[in-house]
Class III extradiol dioxygenase subunit B-like domain-containing protein
Amino acid sequence: MLVAAAVCPCPPLLVPDVAAGAAPELDAARTACSDALGVLAASRPDLLIVIGPADLTGRGPHPEGATGTFERFGVDLAVRLGRDLGTAGRPLPASLAVGAWLLARTGWADAPVEALGVVETLETGRCTDTGRALAARADRVALLVMGDGSACRTVKAPGYLDERATEFDAAASRALGAADTGALIALDEALGHELKAAGRAPWQVLAGAAQGAGLDGRLLYDDAPYGVGYLVAAWS
């Protein structure tokens, strides 16, 4: 069953080497992510699963030891998911590479790690079904859920300004802060797609995994420094 979850944003800019001179702008987000991962470690899981948005080439499971790079962002930096077991498999998509970087940054060694890439258009029902299946993988499962809110909060945002974005992100923020699985499931998948909210599907996977687990939530970060909603939360 699910015993804990950390929700973190997944922009490559979270990695200081990628952000370069702009790195300090996300220091507060990095600190919040570290705090959320501390909650995962304290839960003593038997298995940690990292979930993040992915395109068709990156969707599906990735084993412990899988690697990813940030070369496409102009940085010669490689990351590994957990331990090197000699079975790297496919390259990690960007969201999972950021998750692997966060785990390495905090020195994760508390449980085996796997990952799952989720296509951003995955239907709500399939998201929750996936989450329930993940929660049944071990007696004590923890999730690191990577995903951004809307990308339409300002005119300089990747998706330009959409007046609906603020309320969409506010609803997600309330749901994540309260560990409200019903409210997460109620997020409109079509609207999320229009607002380029890469976290909608991973958050709904979390909702499926957490149903009946009785977890409490805490919101650690909520901001949109580049016109994209970045949220950090911890459930335990």
